[in-house]
Design a protein that fits this description.
The complex is a heterodimer. By secondary structure, chain A is mainly α. Helix content of chain A is 75%, strand content 0%. The chains are: A mainly alpha, B mainly alpha.
Chain lengths: 276, 419
């Protein structure tokens, strides 16, 4: 978007207006995230500027065993288990689906990613009914299973996308040289699709780490995750430790975003090599 | 394994058939292997996702309580036409059923079910059930009316008939502000229950306005990112959109609460610089809902738009300009049409996601800003009314479902892209 030298006056006005809207848009997107970070280091307990001094006291509050460390532990247990299960099941399924002759491919793919297409509050309601009947409400396992259903479409999509540029001749070559199917998968296929698998795994991890609606429906006090605890905090008492935990989560998100960007460029490079 | 048709044809007839058979066997094995890889996830999704969604449809019409808890009464009212008060047999059945229900401690359950029909029914059932064992002989009708004169009013009996299951349309009808009368006709529900259409239209209006704001801000942003001549700057701007996209929804909502409160950062700033004297109400109302929802959904509009705009050569606009088109008409007739697929993709994504919002309005909205998702959660987790929460769920699901054919028609398969 550049303004040409011979632009008329009204063109310049348009151009400046557009730039103004864009600037406002970016400020709008980033300001809330940027503004709350310094407040987490405030010495006083007011969630406002000017800061009355710098301190780590709210981070120390976060380190107290209850409620934040307890919630963090629950979140990590659920998110790690979700990631492992979703990545394994999702990668296997995407690998099987990528075979050219898979029966009813489009329909099966559609069903596997269908949890993305339904509002989460509806999924949560259905899972709540089902889990209430089989005794999985208020259990970690129940929460993990529900999160796998929400997270696994991301794995299927990212791994399928990576497999689209995959050269099956490499697998045939390995097999004709006497490699076992498992050996071929581990030594040939997996290293090549690894960026897609890891991207899917990160999406699965973030999905579980952020998930709140299902947690509201089926988690008991013993399964309170970070989002569930944040929800309770925002409803009842807005205290600075919420801002400290928010800052920590922002740092985690940005780190994971950076990793995904790296994996993305690596994937593009591998696919570029595969199709010269 | 690759076997070419010509090699099969070149070999002798006998070995050719065996090669063909071998090929078919190998292909069958490969197919089985592929199916075996997909099967675990497929079954998982069927059990943990598809089955629960179907169970919502079932629960929206399921009404098993009365025949289970008051079996004799259910049988009698099934024969009753609802025109005049039922006879002594119905009262006898009810007395016996309520006595049994009280002993089985199920009277509260059926009381709650009947309370959906007429409020106050629950306490009436509980009180009658407690005293039912004192009524040992006829006349049952006179004794029951003696306990509570409302047993002589026909509306309560019609409510029992309406609840006699095992399936009901009351929840689905109630979700669109209708009710079935005792004579089978369908009419508008009484005013105290006609809240659902209000929620439905509000949900659509909020989603639509969020979409309008997203387009107003997001279209220029995507345009800027796509047309910036510096690759590096374009990449940085894209990451600036991705950062909020990746930040937890709860974190962003918390940030808005800190910013928008009456004693929050924005109000403090505006008061301090003297622009306002009284804090503005920016949160726990519709303004707060719009701000937080647009913030969460804006990247979903910008990213697909950017993906389309990136592939539009800027020579098109230059050509239009050199052929004499003024900037506005060049934009409208050359640029905008080419961005429509991206605009449609982003818009539908925003709309579909917005319709299902629940957490954000619950945290930054007021009582009159809640959407359908809130009703679903309230009914399911607070009042334990599975029937109504399912019926509202079906309503929301239908609202989203009508948008999907549009989405697919405009974009075809592979419409979902992540990065």
């Amino acid at each position: 978007m550049t303004v040409q030298a011979n632009a008329t006056r009204s063109q310049r006005v348009w151009y400046m207006t557009l730039r103004g809207i864009c600037a406002l848009g970016f400020v709008f997107l980033l300001a809330p995230i940027v503004v709350i970070i310094p407040i987490s280091f405030n010495e006083g307990s007011f969630l406002n500027y000017p800061l009355s001094g710098l301190s780590w006291r709210w981070y120390e509050a976060v380190l107290e065993p209850f409620p934040w460390m307890f919630a963090l532990k629950n979140s990590l247990i659920v998110a790690v288990a979700t990631t492992v299960i979703a990545t394994t099941l999702g990668t296997l399924a995407a690998y099987g689906l990528s075979r050219a002759d898979f029966p009813a491919k489009a329909i099966v793919f559609g069903i596997l990613i269908s949890p993305l297409a339904v509002p989460v509050v509806i999924t949560a309601l259905g899972i709540y009914f089902f889990f209430a009947r089989v005794g999985l409400v208020h259990t970690h396992i129940g929460l993990i299973l529900a999160h796998v259903a929400l997270a696994v479409p991301f794995v299927v999509i990212t791994v399928s996308a990576t497999l689209q540029g995959f050269d099956w001749n490499l697998v045939r070559a390995a097999e004709s040289l006497g490699a076992s199917p498992l050996g071929t998968f581990r030594q040939i296929t997996l290293p090549l699709i690894l960026p897609g698998v890891l991207t899917g795994a990160i999406f699965a991890f973030v999905t579980s780490l952020d998930e709140i609606v299902v947690a509201l429906f089926i988690a008991g006090p013993a399964q309170f995750t970070l989002p569930r605890q944040l929800f309770a905090g925002l409803r009842d008492l807005l205290e600075p430790s919420i801002v400290a935990i928010a800052t920590i989560l922002i740092v985690v998100s940005i780190t994971l975003l950076a990793v995904v960007e790296l994996l993305q460029s690596r994937r593009e490079r591998i696919q570029g090599q595969a199709r010269p | 394994m690759i076997v070419r048709a010509d090699t099969v044809a070149a070999t002798g007839e006998h070995s050719g058939r065996s090669l063909e058979a071998k090929l078919r066997a190998a292909q069958r094995r490969r197919k089985l292997k592929a199916v075996a890889l997909v099967a675990p996830l497929f079954l998982f999704i069927i059990v943990v996702f598809v089955f629960p969604i179907l169970s919502i449809l079932y629960h929206s019409v399921d009404d098993p309580k009365l025949p289970l808890i008051l079996p004799r009464t259910a049988e009698v009212v099934a024969q009753w036409d609802g025109g005049a008060l039922p006879d002594e047999a119905a009262y006898e059945a009810l007395v016996n059923d309520l006595r049994d229900a009280y002993e089985a401690k199920t009277a509260a359950v059926i009381g709650m079910r009947l309370n959906y029909e007429i409020s106050g029914f629950r306490s009436m059932v509980m009180r009658t059930a407690r005293r039912a064992k004192r009524i040992e002989e006829p006349p049952y009708q006179a004794s029951l009316i003696g306990l509570d004169e409302r047993w002589g009013e026909i509306e309560y009996w019609r409510a029992i008939k309406a609840s006699s299951g095992p399936f009901t349309t009351r929840n689905l009808l109630a979700a669109v502000d209708l009710e079935r009368r005792w004579d089978g006709s369908v009419g508008r529900a009484p005013p105290e229950r006609t809240i659902y259409i209000t929620y439905l239209t509000r949900t659509f209006w909020i989603s639509l306005w969020v979409l309008v704001y997203c387009i107003a801000i997001g279209y220029p942003m995507a345009y800027l990112i796509a047309t910036t001549t510096s690759q590096r700057l374009s990449r940085i701007l894209l990451v600036l959109v991705l950062i909020p996209f990746w930040t937890s929804l709860l974190v962003r909502t918390a940030a808005w609460v800190v910013l928008l409160r009456s004693e929050g950062i924005i109000n403090d700033f505006l008061v301090n610089v003297g622009m306002i004297s009284e804090p503005l109400s920016l949160i726990f109302n519709r303004i707060g809902v719009y701000i937080a929802m647009v913030h969460i959904l804006l990247p979903f509009l910008v990213l697909p738009l950017y993906a389309v705009m990136r592939n539009i050569p800027d020579s098109h606009m230059r050509a239009a300009g050199s052929l004499g088109a003024r900037p506005v008409s060049a934009f409208l007739s050359v640029y905008l049409p080419q961005t429509l697929p991206g605009l449609a993709a982003g818009s539908l994504l925003v709309l579909i996601l917005a319709l299902g919002f629940y957490i954000t309005p619950a945290l930054v909205g007021g009582a009159s800003d809640q959407m359908l998702g809130y009703l679903i959660a309230e009914f399911a987790t607070r009042s334990g009314n599975w029937g109504m929460s399912s019926a509202v769920g079906v309503l929301l699901l239908l609202g989203v479902a009508v948008l999907y054919p549009v989405y697919r028609a405009l974009l075809g398969r592979g419409a979902i892209r992540l990065v």
